[in-house]
């Protein structure tokens, strides 16, 4: 019950035990086309270019940034937690000129501040995180795309922690590239990273391989000229494989594709609205249960992610001892924290297959027993009762 990875849905694990197919096998390429169709509603988009990057969520983040950004481009990063810092680090490696608009951990960046920062910095790309699990905050993104388009900038969003759990509205937000991962609310293992790319971003990515830097030399795969940045994460080449051209790039990760496909089938089978509601109830139950136990919930209530909750470690309680007892006595893993929040909060996730009433109730019951054993007085049964009541509300 941490902030991911979490237990995978049994159907996903079963799908991943199927035998392998060659990467150009018609059955395999049919599955690829299905994956593209399945992930469009999951991303809230009609983007043609909706597919998988092979690797963990960070692979898609890096693929997006390295394919969109050239050295020297100004990038504006919306930074309110650890994953904003990751965007920054990747952009630094690319050689971008970094600008940031920041919020303290536990808050979000107001859209007016983003608008002012775009105005001030004139970025080529604006990069943001949707839900930053490090702080448990969800950044509102409505209006971001319009601001970027008006300023001639492309936009990127890391939605790893929210996809499949909170609404991802790629088209309504008007953002160009959004990426995810399986191991949070999609209920799969880490190792495949869904991505969606607007036509205008795809054109930018495809065009820049020929012209940028003015270098002309033969490319080993199709003779179209120089490319820059990464080979493995060159989305132009990966799109060539996912297109009807089926140009060879790397060997598709067959088993991960089966898993990603099944994740989306489970999500759409449940229904997106029902699924978001289940996560909302789970998050509200963790919050209510924690408060009933006399604990303090971290961060701004108005912008809380529904699928992970930060709880302040009470004074005098050894946070790591609590996590250890949770694992050893109850087989339940809850999350620690990073950076400025390290040693200050626990993070309890209720993601995907774990966003269930009984799992939340069992976790809070276990936490109560562990806290009592660690010397923190909490009213017997209060957390579980409040959680169940919040679930019903
Ligand atoms: C968990 C998480 C990631 C994780 O990336 P991996 O490469 O799968 O470890 C990235 N971004 C956000 C916002 C996350 O919450």
UniProtKB/TrEMBL annotation:
Matching SUPFAM superfamilies: PLP-dependent transferases
Domain Aminotransferase class V as annotated: residue spans: 24-205
Alphabetical keyword list: Aminotransferase, Pyridoxal phosphate, Transferase
Cofactor entry: pyridoxal 5'-phosphate
InterPro entries with a match to the protein in the record: Aminotrans_V_dom, PyrdxlP-dep_Trfase, PyrdxlP-dep_Trfase_major, PyrdxlP-dep_Trfase_small, SP_NH2Trfase/AEP_transaminase
GO molecular function: transaminase activity
Pfam family, one: Aminotran_5
Protein name as annotated: Alanine--glyoxylate aminotransferase family protein
Organism whose genome encodes this protein: Sphingomonas oligophenolica
Organism taxonomic ancestry: Bacteria, Pseudomonadati, Pseudomonadota, Alphaproteobacteria, Sphingomonadales
């Amino acid at each position: 019950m941490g902030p991911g990875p979490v237990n995978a849905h049994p159907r996903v694990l079963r799908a991943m035990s199927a035998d392998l197919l060659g990467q150009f096998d018609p059955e395999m390429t049919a599955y690829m086309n299905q994956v593209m169709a399945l992930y469009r509603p999951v991303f809230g988009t009609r983007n043609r270019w909706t597919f998988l990057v092979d690797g963990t969520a960070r692979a898609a983040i890096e693929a997006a940034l390295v394919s969109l950004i050239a050295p020297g481009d100004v990038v504006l990063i919306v930074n309110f937690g650890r994953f904003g810092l990751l965007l920054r680090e990747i952009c630094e490696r690319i050689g971008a000129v970094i600008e940031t608009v920041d919020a303290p951990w536990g808050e979000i960046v107001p859209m007016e501040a983003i608008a002012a920062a775009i105005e001030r910095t004139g970025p080529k790309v604006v990069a943001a995180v949707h839900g930053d699990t490090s702080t448990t905050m969800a950044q509102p993104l409505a209006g971001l795309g319009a601001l970027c388009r008006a300023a001639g900038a492309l936009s990127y969003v890391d939605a790893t922690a929210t996809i499949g759990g909170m609404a991802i509205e790629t088209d309504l937000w008007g953002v160009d590239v959004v990426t995810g991962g399986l191991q949070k609310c999609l209920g799969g293992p880490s190792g495949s990273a869904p991505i969606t790319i607007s036509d205008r971003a795809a054109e930018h990515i495809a065009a820049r391989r020929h012209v940028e830097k003015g270098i002309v030399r033969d490319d080993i795969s199709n003779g179209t000229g120089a490319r820059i940045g990464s080979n493995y994460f060159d989305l132009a080449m990966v799109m060539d494989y996912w297109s009807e051209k089926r140009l060879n790039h790397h060997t598709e990760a067959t088993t991960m594709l089966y898993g990603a496909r099944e994740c989306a089938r489970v999500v759409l089978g449940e229904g997106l609205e029902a699924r978001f509601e289940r996560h909302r109830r789970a998050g509200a139950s963790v919050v209510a249960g924690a408060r009933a136990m006399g604990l303090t919930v971290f961060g701004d209530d108005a912008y809380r992610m529904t699928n992970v909750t930060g709880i302040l470690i009470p004074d005098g309680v050894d946070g790591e001892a609590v996590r250890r007892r949770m694992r050893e006595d109850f087989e339940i893993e809850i999350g620690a924290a990073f950076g400025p929040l390290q040693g200050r909060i626990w993070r309890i996730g209720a993601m995907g297959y774990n966003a269930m009433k009984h799992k939340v109730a069992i976790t809070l019951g276990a936490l109560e027993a562990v806290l009592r054993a660690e010397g923190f007085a909490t009213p017997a049964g209060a957390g579980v009762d409040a959680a169940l009541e919040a679930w019903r509300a």
